[in-house]
């Protein structure tokens, strides 16, 4: 099995990387950063997000494993003090995996005849900072509303616990192949109207934004942002591609949500 180790720059992650590297060499794994079968990330969800984009054009051959050096994350199943168990699991690997949906973002810019395509693991947002963002929103090709406000966020199920959640979006179980649209600071009064609540869109529907004129829109795709080009249209769909994780252990999704946002029962227990 060919393994790549992808760590963030923090000293703790670098120390874990060094230890893990030694263990892999001792057990005769092949370290191959270019064409790996398994990518082990060390850090947090942000590190897994960076690794996903680094290996974006190899998603069909790569499975990911996340080791966290802080709190339990949504893409990280192993603690840094469990790397011996992780190495043993990798040695008896039988290619079991679990996969999650991704978001395809297809953009038609005014200055190019070709659409540009991006892939998001968490979400893509469209914002305009210098003035109110105005965009028509279509669902399944039908005009739904004219949005005025700061911006809009379209997220995947696994991204629903990230930016989407800060915007009041619902947390979505990653077994569901859906997209969610959440508003960022919409204007609602007697003149302007938006739905004003997050929407969950069915797997075979697609979302289209046709923004007003201006080249000061900001398009984000996970941690990346794209500026200063006039956007004619953005289409969002559930991608045909998926992200695969090696499945040696499986933390129940709602347990992860509870751990990240609520805390354990013991921490919270009060006499009723
Ligand atoms: P960052 O600012 O370093 O990370 C933002 C935070 O989001 C980190 O705490 C990260 O967890 C967490 N996170 C990432 N993916 C998550 C997920 N799927 N579920 C729950 N939490 C998640 O930036 P970054 O590392 O480049 O990450 C970019 C992400 O930041 C974007 O995709 C977006 O979701 C998020 N973001 C959130 C807001 C907001 O909530 N207002 C605003 C902008 C961007 P770790 O600490 O484990 O890495």
Q: What this model shows, in words?
A:
The protein is globular and about 65 Å long. The chain is built from 6 helices and 16 strands. Strands 6, 7, 8, 9, 10, 11, 12, 13, 14, 15 and 16 form an 11-stranded antiparallel beta sheet that branches. A 5-stranded parallel beta sheet has the order 2-1-3-4-5, with helices on both faces. The mean pLDDT is 94. The protein folds into 2 domains: 2-96 and 247-268, 3-Layer(aba) Sandwich (Rossmann fold); 102-239, Probable inorganic polyphosphate/atp-NAD kinase, domain 2 (Tumour Suppressor Smad4, Sandwich). The protein has 272 residues and is α+β, with helices and mostly antiparallel strands. The chain starts with a strand and ends with a helix. The protein is 19% helix and 39% strand. Residues 44-46, 49, 73-74, 122-123, 158-159, 161-163, 166, 222-223 line the site of NADP nicotinamide-adenine-dinucleotide phosphate (NAP).
Primary descriptors:
single chain, 272 residues, alpha+beta, Rossmann fold, Tumour Suppressor Smad4, eleven-stranded antiparallel sheet, five-stranded parallel sheet, 6 helices, 19% helix, globular, binds NADP nicotinamide-adenine-dinucleotide phosphate
- CA distance, first residue to last residue: 53 Å
The rough form would be described as globular
CATH superfamily of the largest domain: Probable inorganic polyphosphate/atp-NAD kinase, domain 2
CATH topology of the largest domain: Tumour Suppressor Smad4
Which structural class matches the secondary elements? alpha+beta
Tally of contiguous helical segments: 6
Number of strands: 16
Bound molecule kinds, no repeats: NADP nicotinamide-adenine-dinucleotide phosphate
Helix-residue proportion: 10-25%
What is the CATH architecture descriptor of the largest domain? Sandwich
Query: What is the N-to-C succession of helices and strands?
Result: EHEEHEEHEEEEEHEEEEEEHH
How many domain modules? 2
State which percent range the strand residues make up.
35-45%
**What is the average of the pLDDT values?**
94
C-alpha Rg (nearest Å): 20 Å
Q: Major sheet: size, sense and barrel closure?
A: 11 strands, antiparallel
CATH class of the largest domain: Mainly Beta
Unreliable stretches (pLDDT < 50, length at least 5) are none
């Amino acid at each position: 099995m060919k393994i790549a180790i992808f760590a963030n720059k923090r000293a703790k992650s670098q120390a874990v990387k060094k230890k893990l590297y030694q263990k892999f060499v001792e057990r005769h794994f092949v370290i191959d950063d270019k064409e790996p079968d398994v990518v082990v990330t060390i850090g947090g969800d942000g590190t897994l997000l960076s690794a996903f984009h680094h290996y974006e054009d190899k998603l069909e051959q790569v499975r990911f494993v996340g080791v966290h050096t802080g709190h339990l994350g949504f893409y990280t199943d192993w603690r840094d003090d469990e790397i011996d168990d992780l190495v043993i699991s990798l040695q008896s690997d039988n290619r079991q995996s679990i996969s999650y949906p991704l978001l395809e973002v297809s953009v038609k810019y005014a200055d190019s005849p070709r659409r540009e395509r991006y892939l998001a693991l968490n979400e893509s947002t469209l914002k305009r900072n210098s003035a109110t963002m105005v965009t028509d929103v279509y669902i399944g090709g039908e005009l739904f509303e004219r949005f005025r406000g700061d911006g809009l966020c379209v997220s995947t199920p696994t991204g629903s616990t990230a930016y989407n959640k800060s915007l009041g979006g619902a947390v979505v179980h990653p077994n569901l192949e859906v997209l969610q649209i959440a508003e960022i600071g919409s204007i609602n009064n007697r003149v302007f109207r938006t739905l004003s609540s997050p929407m969950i869109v069915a797997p075979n529907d697609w979302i289209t934004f046709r923004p007003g004129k201006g080249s000061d829109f900001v398009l984000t795709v996970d941690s990346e942002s794209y500026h200063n080009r006039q956007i004619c249209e953005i289409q969002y769909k559930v991608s045909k591609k998926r992200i695969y994780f090696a499945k040696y252990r499986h933390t129940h999704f709602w347990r992860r949500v509870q751990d990240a946002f609520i805390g354990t029962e013991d921490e919270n227990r009060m006499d009723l």
